[in-house]
Amino acid sequence: MDYLNLPVYRHKDLILNALQNNQVIVVESPTGSGKTTQMPVILHAAGYADRGIIGVTQPRRIAAVSVSEFIARQMGTTLPGLVGYKMRFEDRTDQSTAIKIMTDGILLQEMKLDPYLSKYGTIVVDEAHERSLNIDFILGLLKRVLEARKEFKVIISSATINTQVFSEYFGECPVVKIDAITYPVTVIYDPPATLEVQQAIQGSSSSQAAADARIEKIESIVGRVQEERRKGDVLIFLPGEKMIKDCMVRLAAAPYGRNLQLLPLYGRLGKEEQERVFLPAPRGKTKVVISTNIAETSVTIDGITTVIDSGLSKLNYYNPRTFTSSLIEGPISKASGNQRKGRAGRTQEGTCYRLYQRKDFENRPLFTTEEIYRTDLSEVVLRMADLGITAFEEFDFISPPGREGLIAAIETLNLLDALEADRTLSKIGKMMTDFPLPPRQSRIIVEAILKYPDVTQETIIAAAFLSTQSPYLLPPGEEMDARRAHHSFRDPAGDFVSYLKLYRAYKAAKDPAKFCENNYLDERAMGEIANVTEQLEQIVSAMGVPILNGGSTEDYLCSVARGLIQFVCIREGRDMYRSLTADRILIHPGSVMFRMDPQYIVAGEIVRTTRMYAMSVSPLSRNALMKISPDLFEALDANAAKGTGKSRKIRDFTNHIKIGAEVFDIETVKGKKTVMLPWEKLSRLKDAAVTDTAGIYKGLRGTIILNGKFVLLAGEKLELILTLLPSLDVEGALTRKWPRKKNFNVREELDSLLGFLPILVTPALWKQGKKELGFLCLFSDDDGNYWFKCSRGFHTALNESISSVESLIDELGDDVDIEKKNIVNQTYRRLSEYLG
C-alpha cells in the first residue's frame, strides 16, 4: 500500500504548520482519509516525539489494537517497541514507546498520577465526534494541561460531524479540513411494505415482527445486488448482535447464500473475528459485513459499494432518579445516516438503501444525543475528586451535564462512602480509585478488604463478571442443551455464587477452550473474566493486602451488596420487588433466582427492557441486610409498608385519543381513564411504529375488545398493550383449543405436551361461556407433571411459561430425539425474545 497517496498526506504541511502556530487544532476529515493511522506517523517524522510521547486516544479497544498494529507494520517495528498500545488490563508498551495508542479510559487513569501529562508532548483525541463521556471529560482536563504547559500540543481528530463545536471550545482554534475523493452515492428509500404505516408515525418499531420485516427486505435487496452482479461488497447496519445473527442465518439460507461471505461486526467479537472484515472476499464471493454502528466511523472497510441502513441503533440511557439503565433501540440521527451512506462511495459510485422513508429521515435530529446527557456520571465525579476537583458543577465540560445527573452521581458516591462532607475523597474513595472499575464494583472489593478479608478473592471474581460481557451463549437451535449446561453451575445462593462455581470450573479445566465449547460459554468473555480477575488481584496485592478466600457465603454477599447498595431490593407482592428508588422490579428469567421469591435480594444492575428487571441476583438474609446497613433495612421496610407514595401526573386525554392514524374512545372505568381498543381498529396498527411512541401514554389504561364483547388485557397499561401489539394473535383466541384441567406427565405424555407448546403465551378464551380472554401459560411441579392455564396478565403467563420450559429442559436430559428438541428450543427462544 502506498501510504503517501492517502488524502491526509496532501494536507500534511497544512496540519504541521497549523500545529506549529497553535496549541490546539481540529482535523476534520471523512472516514478513509488516513487520519487515524497516519497522523501519529506524520507527527513522529516531524520530530514531535522528541518533545515527549505522542499519545493517541481511541474510544474502542478493537481500534486501539488494530491501529497500533497497522502503524507498527508500516514503521517496520514490532509491539511493544517504538509503537505500543494500552487498554484496561492489557499493556503492550515499554520504555522505548514513542507512539502510544490507548483507550480514552487509560489516559484518564494516567492523569490520576500525572495530572499534567508530563511524559507526553502531544495528545491526539481520535474519533472525537463520538462525544463519549470519557472524551468530553478528557477535553476538559486537557484544557487544564494546556494552560499549565504552553509547549503541549493537542489535536482533535473528528469525522465531518459538528467540528465547529470543538473549535469554539478551544478558543476558536483552527480547523484543518482534509478533502477526500468521494464518489456519488444513490440513496434509495425502501422501507419494508409492512412498515409503510410509519408515514403517520415518527420513529421505528423495535418489535420482533418489525425486525423480521427488515431482515426480509434486506434479503430481497441483497438478492437484487446478486442478480445484477454489481461490483463491490455490501455493508449492512443493524442495531444489535441478535438481529445481526438472525440476518446472517436468513442470508445464509437464501438461494444465493453460497455466493456470499457473511461476516458479523460488533463489539463482543474477538480480535481475529473482527479483523476478517478487512480481508478480501474469496474469489467468486461477495463480502457482506453485517455491523452495528461500529462501522460508521471507527473502522474503514475497503470495497464497499452497497450500504443497507436499517436506520436504527441502540443507546444506553441512565435514569438518575431511579439509578436504573435502559438499552433503547431507536432511530439514528441525520449525521449518523450520512456517515453510513458515505461508506458506499469511498472507492467508486455506490448505492445506499435506507429501510425507512425520506420524510422520516428529514424529521430526525441532526446529531446523536451526547453521552454526558444519558449516562451515569458517578465514575467521572469520582475521578474529578481524585484530581482535586471538588466544584463538580463548575467543571468546564464541552457540553455541561444536567444538574440532576451530577446530584445523582454525588448521591451514589455518598451512599458508597466515597466522599467526605467537603467532597474530597474519603479513605474508601481513595482505595476505590486504585481500581479501573465503575465505583459500585470497586466498592465491592474495598468492602471485602476492610471488613471481610476472607472473601477478597470471591469479590474480585464477582467484580470481574460484572465488568465484562455475559459469557453465556444460547445458539439458535441449541437453546435446550445450552440452558442445561448453564444450569450445571447453578447454586441456591444465586448468581453471584454461581459465578464462583463457573469461574473455578473454568480455571480447573485442562482445556479451557473445550470447556467453553462443551458448556456453551463465550471463550473470549471467559478469557477476559480470568484476565480481569488476575489484574485486580495484582492491584490488591500491590496494596499489601493478601488475596484470601474461603469465607462464608453471607460475608461474600454482604461485600457484594455494600457496593451494590442501590440495587438491594425487598419483595413487594408476588414476584415483584422494589429498591429505595424503583418499584415493580422483576427478577430476570435468566437469573438463578427466577421464581425463587426471597424476601430480600441484591442485583448486579437493574435494567429496563420490556419490564424493569433485576439482573445477576442473589438472596440476602435479614441478618445480612442489617450488617450491610441498618438504615437501609429500615428504609426498605418502611417503604414497602407504605408503598411508593408516588402519583403520576398524566396527560389530559379527555374523551378520545389518536394512536397512529386511528382514534379511540376513552371511558372512566373504576376511576381510571381507560382507552377502549376495538381489535378491528387496533389491528390496523400492528405493523406501525407505535411501540416507540408508547411512552407518551403513561398513566393511561387500555382494554382490547374483540367482536364487541370479548375483552383482553382489561385495564392494563396502554404502553404495555402497544408494546405487545405487533406480536398479538388475537383473531385465533376464540377458536384456539387448549387442554383444560389436564395434567401431562413428561414420562408418559411428552408428545401431547409438546403439541401445545407453539401456542404458549397466545391469547385464548379464559373459560367457556365467559367474555374474558387471557394468555395461555404452562405450569409445572417437581414431579414431571405439566398443565396449562389461562392468565389475565401477559407477563405472568410469560414468566410462568419460561420457568416451566426450563424445568422441562432439565427433565428431558439428552434422551430426546432431534424433532422434539427443536420444538422445545423454538419455544424457549420465542418466549425469551419477549424479554428484550
UniProtKB/TrEMBL annotation:
<dbReference type="InterPro" id="IPR011709">
    <property type="entry name" value="DEAD-box_helicase_OB_fold"/>
</dbReference>
<dbReference type="GO" id="GO:0005524">
    <property type="term" value="F:ATP binding"/>
</dbReference>
<dbReference type="InterPro" id="IPR027417">
    <property type="entry name" value="P-loop_NTPase"/>
</dbReference>
<dbReference type="GO" id="GO:0004386">
    <property type="term" value="F:helicase activity"/>
</dbReference>
<dbReference type="InterPro" id="IPR014001">
    <property type="entry name" value="Helicase_ATP-bd"/>
</dbReference>
<protein>
    <submittedName>
        <fullName>ATP-dependent RNA helicase</fullName>
    </submittedName>
</protein>
<keyword id="KW-0067">ATP-binding</keyword>
<dbReference type="InterPro" id="IPR001650">
    <property type="entry name" value="Helicase_C-like"/>
</dbReference>
<keyword id="KW-0347">Helicase</keyword>
<dbReference type="GO" id="GO:0016787">
    <property type="term" value="F:hydrolase activity"/>
</dbReference>
<dbReference type="Pfam" id="PF00270">
    <property type="entry name" value="DEAD"/>
</dbReference>
<feature type="domain" description="Helicase C-terminal">
    <location>
        <begin position="217"/>
        <end position="388"/>
    </location>
</feature>
<dbReference type="InterPro" id="IPR007502">
    <property type="entry name" value="Helicase-assoc_dom"/>
</dbReference>
<keyword id="KW-0378">Hydrolase</keyword>
<keyword id="KW-0547">Nucleotide-binding</keyword>
<dbReference type="Pfam" id="PF07717">
    <property type="entry name" value="OB_NTP_bind"/>
</dbReference>
<feature type="domain" description="Helicase ATP-binding">
    <location>
        <begin position="16"/>
        <end position="179"/>
    </location>
</feature>
<comment type="similarity">
    <text>Belongs to the DEAD box helicase family. DEAH subfamily.</text>
</comment>
<dbReference type="GO" id="GO:0003723">
    <property type="term" value="F:RNA binding"/>
</dbReference>
<dbReference type="InterPro" id="IPR002464">
    <property type="entry name" value="DNA/RNA_helicase_DEAH_CS"/>
</dbReference>
<dbReference type="Pfam" id="PF00271">
    <property type="entry name" value="Helicase_C"/>
</dbReference>
<dbReference type="InterPro" id="IPR011545">
    <property type="entry name" value="DEAD/DEAH_box_helicase_dom"/>
</dbReference>
<dbReference type="Pfam" id="PF21010">
    <property type="entry name" value="HA2_C"/>
</dbReference>
